[in-house]
Amino acid sequence: MTSVRTELPSAVRTSPRRTALISGASIAGPALAYWLNRYGFAVTVVEKASALRGGGYPIDVRGTALEVVRRMGILPRLREAHIELRRLTFLEGDGSEVASVDPHSLTGGAAGRDLEVRRGDLTDALYSVVRDDVEFLFDDSIDTFEQTGHGVDVTFRGGSRRTYDMVFGADGVHSRTREFLFGPEEQFHRHLGYCFAGFTMRNTFGLSHEVMMWNSPGRAAALYATGDNAEVHAFLNFAHPEPPFDAFRNPQAQRDLVAAVFADAGWEVPGMLAALRDADDLFFDAVSQIRMPRWSSGRVALVGDAAYAPSFLTGQGSSLALVGAYMLAGSLADRDHAAGFAAYEHDTRDFVTVNQDLVGEGDAALFPTTARALEQRNAMLRKLSVMPAARERPAHSALTLPEFDVIRPSAAGR
Ligand SMILES: Cc1cc2nc3c(=O)[nH]c(=O)nc-3n(C[C@H](O)[C@H](O)[C@H](O)COP(=O)(O)OP(=O)(O)OC[C@H]3O[C@@H](n4cnc5c(N)ncnc54)[C@H](O)[C@@H]3O)c2cc1C
Fold first, then answer.
1. Where do runs of H (alpha helix) occur along 183-249?
2. Domain 84-116+192-290+360-391 falls in which CATH fold?
3. pLDDT tens sequence across 199-240
4. Protein residue closest via CA to atom 37 of ligand 1
5. Which residue among 21, 26, 233 is best mutated to probe the pocket of ligand 1, counting the most ligand atoms within 8 A of its Cβ?
6. What is the DSSP letter of 215?
7. Model's pTM, two decimal places?
8. Residue range 82-103, pLDDT digits in tens
9. Class of domain 1-82+118-188+291-358+393-414 (CATH, top level)
10. How far is the CA of 227 from the centre of ligand 1 (A)?
């Protein structure tokens, strides 16, 4: 259990409350805000969207990250939101069935313990435990910042200026904070050879608690029904050797690219492409990782996808964001920024690396790029459909969370 400290270190007791600005209010941002607030920081979160962003494909919370959400008190709420996925059915190019398997046998998740929740349910739960204690600035973002001897001078896009003791980038794979600090994304972007598009569409298929996945070499189309809902998550993944940097900020270019790649595909894909044209919640990205030699510079540090996106192929993006936020805030509980950031990197990097290494370039087992590899995968799936579920992957639990002393905000003063 996290302990509540009554005796504070003299430096913390006598100095004013430290201030922190976090860019990004998705998973890493609110989780970091929660823990920094517990350690006595006055926290502001700035989010460029006009409200908390819902939507997105269902995400997993596993292993060490489960302990983080338990310590935040949101585990019961997330258990209620858990999606009970019962079946994963794979289809040939002509739509006939290859195999139908237990989802846990593929994801390495632990049945009855790990969580799969809608991304929006996780962001809502995180927001609900910080909204009263932390300042949120929606529809704004950092325009520029400058580090000085006394702090970080920030100018917001909305025009205001403020100075913070520390600034944190929790602004995702295409982090602007990272770009300010370390330069263009290309240096840290490790492309895994695919792109994907996700969006919701009407569940006209009668699907319930299940995923259907169609494959042809280099292409996959999936329909994911989280329950008996009127909507399903549609997902189109395809091999693309280079990251399409030009398309990242251009939704029409994204739609055109996906439509061209899947133009002659069978099964339900034509209907999915029609739904893609009208979707208002399209999420498109390259399948890639962010790998950086350092996650901080001066008084500014990165967390979550901004620092170490592992890609959805690992299923560990949200878990790394939650664990990283816990470790970063805890490392600062009774240290200054220099010592705290060094401890964060030292204590968290092995966990990040072992999870990022779960997948290599072009080797995503679910998305074979050649006819031969697809046939091998299908043979493996047919065997799997008659075998018991695989054991949990040790990478998910490769870090035992330390205890950090919680400082009562009132005791820390302003
Ligand atoms: C709407 C949405 C849908 C998603 N859907 C999927 C999905 O279907 N599949 C998948 O694999 N992953 C998806 N993700 C990514 C997934 O949430 C992350 O991989 C993971 O949870 C790690 O979270 P994060 O908080 O580090 O980064 P993210 O979840 O990417 O969050 C970054 C946050 O920072 C905000 N932001 C970005 N730039 C700025 C800026 N300059 N100033 C202020 N705020 C900024 C973004 O609006 C976002 O709220 C989605 C993310 C979002 C935001």
1. none
2. D-Amino Acid Oxidase; Chain A, domain 2 (3.30.9)
3. 999 999 999 999 999 999 999 999 999 988 889 999 999 999
4. 171
5. 26
6. E
7. 0.91
8. 998 889 999 999 999 999 988 8
9. alpha beta
10. 24
